[in-house]
Amino acid sequence: MRALAIGAFCLLALSACKFSNHSDTVLPIYGNREAVTKTVNGKTITDTVYQTIPDFETVNQYGKTITRKSLDGTIYVADFFFTTCPSICPIMHRNMLKVYDEFKTSGNVKIVSYSIDPRHDTVAVLKNYADKMGITGNTWWFLNGDKKATYKLAESYLVAVMEDSGAPGGYVHQGYFVLIDKQKRIRGSYDGTQPEQVEKLISDIKLLQTEPASMIAQ
């Protein structure tokens, strides 16, 4: 199982490298892309269609249904965790608090943390977890959803997640913070256990806030 986990991590890491060259002032767009040819006003044009985060249905720590549409018009950061994690999750979320504190009053930035152990991480458990961290309001949501669907969704974020009875806490997952723009495209991936990577994430969010909605990285 560990070999499978390592293989999956490497595969997703390679997928994350599929982006165009870009300047220092424009963030790349990660993931797969395809050229789509269509006719507009009698002229044939070719557009690039980028990978986006698909629809999902979860419930947050307040018992409210959260879907892809709930994040319309916002920049957001996503990660995958479980509340009983004995290894990287506590470090990740201590670091994520820096992101929360920086943007909790901005109004256009959110954080979503998907539980990979939804059977244990009920709404009540997630609320207690959020309360202990001092999280209030709707800037940071802790989400419970169907387990199989959540694991599949992680692939769309280019994050590997799986059960492993030999791993600490019974799960293997990557500790990435994934930056998503208002068009639901992946714009960055950061090691959530490394403070310098979290500082880079904060800087990139600010850069993304200034980017016109129509801008596409080249």
UniProtKB/TrEMBL annotation:
Q: Which domain of life is it from?
A: Bacteria
Q: Which Gene3D superfamilies match?
A: Glutaredoxin
Q: Does the keyword Signal apply?
A: yes
Q: Where is the Thioredoxin domain?
A: 47-210
- InterPro entries reported in the protein's UniProt record: SCO1/SenC, Thioredoxin-like_sf, Thioredoxin_domain
Q: Which UniProt keywords apply?
A: Copper, Signal
- Span of the secretion signal? 1-18
Looking up Pfam families in the UniProt record yields: SCO1-SenC
Q: Which family does it belong to?
A: Belongs to the SCO1/2 family.
- The protein, known as: Protein SCO1/2
